[in-house]
Design goal:
The complex is a heterodimer of chains A (116) and B (114). By secondary structure, chain A is an all-beta fold. In chain A, strand 4 and strand 5 form a beta hairpin. In chain A, the strands form two sheets. In chain A, strands 2, 4, 5, 6, 9, 10 and 11 form a seven-stranded mixed β-sheet that branches. In chain A, strands 1-3-8-7 form a four-stranded antiparallel β-sheet, with no helix packed on it. Chain A starts with a strand and ends with a strand. Chain A contains no helices and eleven strands. Helix content of chain A is 0%, strand content 55%. By secondary structure, chain B is mainly β. In chain B, strands 2, 4, 5, 9, 10 and 11 form a six-stranded mixed β-sheet that branches. In chain B, a hairpin with a 4-residue loop joins strand 7 and strand 8. The chains are: A mainly beta (116), B mainly beta (114). Chains A and B meet through strand 5, strand 9 and strand 10 of A and strand 4, strand 5, strand 9 and strand 10 of B.
Chain lengths: 116, 114
């Protein structure tokens, strides 16, 4: 199984709503990532979890709150978002640093988020 | 600051033709270089991965090269197909704190016309 799944595929929310994005992988990867991607731009790294601990937070606003409840799951909790937060949110996973020739980040299909 | 530059920004070719995409990087310490294909609205899919000691790697009609001395990579697509229309992203990673930290290029948008 080399698949990363993300739910929901699409999400529309108001600025006062609270919602969560979910990501799941069963490849035994111990590093998981959240990215934000705007149209025609490369993905921007938001958070990195390594062994279920937050290791990198790329100065993301507190209205985005990540959570890694176990080694297979990664959540992104959303609260009081702004319209400019509308984007494709990608989850990825990889082996924790080991053999560089086998590492790759496996991406999920993304959640298309629209904030009204 | 780690950077990855890709060229051209966009490319239009006819079906059946070959093309080459370029990637220059200044990432340190270098761990690996990957090429991804991303269809619009979908997650990126890995095409190739190369480490410092590798010069070339193929995946079907895709062939990637790496020159670690000049810090350049290329992705050659042979006999292009309509389904090759996508964004091709070069990603160079550093190993840090138990995870691979990627630096993304802005991508080359490839359009294949019949």
């Amino acid at each position: 199984d080399t698949e990363v799944t993300q739910t929901p595929k699409h999400l529309v929310m108001g600025m006062t709503n609270k919602k969560s994005l979910k990501c799941e992988q069963h490849m035994g990867h111990r590093a998981m990532y959240w990215y934000k991607q705007k149209a025609k731009k490369p993905p921007e790294l938001m958070f990195v979890y390594s062994y279920e601990k937050l290791s990198i937070n790329e100065s993301v606003p507190s209205r985005f709150s990540p959570e890694c409840p176990n080694s297979s799951l990664l959540n992104l909790h959303l609260h009081a978002l702004q319209p400019e937060d509308s984007a494709l949110y990608l989850c990825a996973s990889s082996q924790v640093v080991g053999r560089a020739d086998t590492d790759t980040q496996y991406f999920g299909p993304g959640t298309r988020l629209t904030v009204l | 600051k780690n950077q990855v530059e890709q060229s051209p920004q966009s490319l239009i070719i006819l079906e059946g033709k070959n093309c080459t995409l370029q990637c220059n990087y200044t990432v340190s310490p270098f761990s690996n270089l990957r090429w991804y294909k991303q269809d619009t609205g979908r997650g990126p899919v890995s095409l190739t991965i190369m480490t410092f000691s590798e010069n070339t790697k193929s995946n079907g009609r895709y062939t990637a090269t790496l020159d670690a001395d000049t810090k350049q990579s290329s992705l050659h697509i042979t006999a292009s197909q309509l389904s090759d229309s996508a964004s091709y992203i070069c990603v160079v990673s550093s190993a840090s704190g138990g995870s691979y930290i990627p630096t993304f290029g802005r991508g080359t948008s490839l359009i294949v016309h019949p």
